[in-house]
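Throughout our pipeline, every protein is held as a single compact record rather than as scattered files. The record that follows is passed on verbatim for readers who wish to inspect the format:
___
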Amino acid sequence: MTTITRRSLAGAVTLGVLAAPAVARAQTRRWRMVTSWPKRLPGPGMSAERVAERIATMSGGRVQITVHAAGEVVPAFEVLDAVGGGVAEMGHTAAFFWQGKMPASVFYTTVPFGLTPMEHVAWVEAGGGQALWDEMYAPFAAKPFMGGNTGVCMGGWFRREIKSLDDLKGLKIRSLGLGGEVYRRLGATPQTTPPGEILTSLQSGVLDGAEFVGPGTDIALGLYRVAPNYIGPGFNKPNGTGECIVSLKLWESLDAEMKAIVAHACAAEAGFALSEMERLNAEALAALIERHHVKLPSFPADVVAAGRRHAAEVLVELGGRDALSRRVHDSYVGFKARSAPWSRVSVKAMLDAREA
C-alpha cells in the first residue's frame, strides 16, 4: 500500500508545475509572417502586427507569430511566393501585387471607379467573392483573407498641380493594379515602386508623382515634403483592402478551432482597420493642411471623364483574359450593378444632404 505523505504530495505538485510549462512550450507553434510594408507602417503595417497579436491571444499562446517588414526576409513583391513556397507560414500584402500571376487578383484590392470599402466587404463576405478568391489562390498554395483596409484612397501626390489631361502626359507615377493601367492610358508612365522606396524615388526625380493610400498612412511616408499637391478624388483606388495569406499546406493541417482563430483574427482586423483609418485619415488630413501646407486640388473634369472611359475598357479586357478572370469580373461587376442603386439613395444622398 502506498502512503501519501506531505513531502511526496509537495513533490508531485512541484513536478506538475514544472511539467506544465514544458508541455505548453512543446505545443507552441512559431510562425513567420512576411509583409510588403515598412515596419509598423500606419495602416497596413499595423494591421499585420495586430493579426499576429490576435492569433496569439485567441490561441492562448499556442501560436506565436514573428512579423517581418518588407526586405527583412523577402522583398515586398515576393510575399506570395514566400508563403506558397514554405519560406513563411503567413503574409500580409495586397492582392493587386499579383496581377502578373493572376490577372483577376486586382479585384480583391481595388478597381478604378469600383466598389467602395463597405460594398467591397459585402461582395467578398456575402456576394460570392471569397469562394472565387480561394479558387484563384489555390494553385499558388495560399489561402487568402481580408486582413485590413485603408479605406477610400486619394488620387496621388504630385510635384505640380494637374490642371488638364495634357498635364499627365509623360509623368512617371507610382501606381499599381488597374489604376496604374488607367494612368498609362491617360498618358502617364506607371511605376511599380515598393512602398518603402516611394519617398526616395520622388526625391531623386525617378518619380513625378505617386499614389499609395490615404492621409493616415501617406503622412508617415513623408511624401508631402517633395510633392505638395495631394490630388483627388481617388478614382484609381476607391478601396484599399489588405490581404492576409496563409500557407495552404499549413491551413489544411489546422484543426477546426485553429482555422476559426485565424479566420476571426483576420476578419476582426479588416473591420477594425477600416474604422481606425477613418480616424487617422481625418487627423492626418488636418495636419497635412494646417502644419505642412499641403494643397488639395481636384482632378479636372476631362481627366475624370477620360479615366472613367478607360477604366471601363480595362475591365472588359481583363474579363477576357481567362475563364476564372471572367467569372471574377462578372461576379464583381454584377454586384456593383446591384449595390449601386442602394448606395446612391443611401450614402450618397445622405452625404449630399449633409453638405448642403
